[in-house]
Amino acid sequence: MWHASSMMIISVLYPVGSDDTFDMDYYMSSHVPLVQRLLEPMGMRQTRVMKADSDAAFPVVAELDFDDLDSLNAALAAHGPETQADIPNFTNVPPVIQISERIL
Fold it and tell me: Within its chain, how far is the Cα of 32 from the centroid?
């Protein structure tokens, strides 16, 4: 038996290929702390970063959890431009962004 949850997750997937760059050190030491500093006061509950091998479709994936869509949208409206502006500091690849409702 499963129970529906209103937890909302924004997934940021980086499709890094052989000609692309991704500075994991900068990402983990600067970008992730920036996202946490800006979005935690706006209701972000958890941050996860996953790294797959370089042959994966998305070698780097981040997930940010929010209690509901309203808090997620408010956080993105307030701080999305600043977090997006930092992306060129660690990669030349535009991320794929997906917003999902957690159902299990």
Answer: 9
The three-point CA angle 38-16-27 to 5° equals 30
| Predicted pLDDT of residue 18 | 76
Q: How far apart are CA 34 and CA 39, in angstroms?
A: 8
In whole angstroms, give the CA distance from residue 93 to residue 51: 16
Q: Is the pTM of this model over 0.85?
A: yes
Asked if 20 and 93 touch (Cβ cutoff 8 Å), the reply is yes
**Distance separating the N- and C-terminal Cα atoms of the chain:** 10
Domains of the chain, CATH where assigned:
8-101 (3.30.70.100)
Dihedral (Cα; 31, 88, 7, 43), 10-degree rounding: 50
Backbone angles phi, psi at 102, to 5 degrees: -75, 125
Whether residue 15 contacts residue 94, with contact meaning beta carbons closer than 8 Å, is answered with no
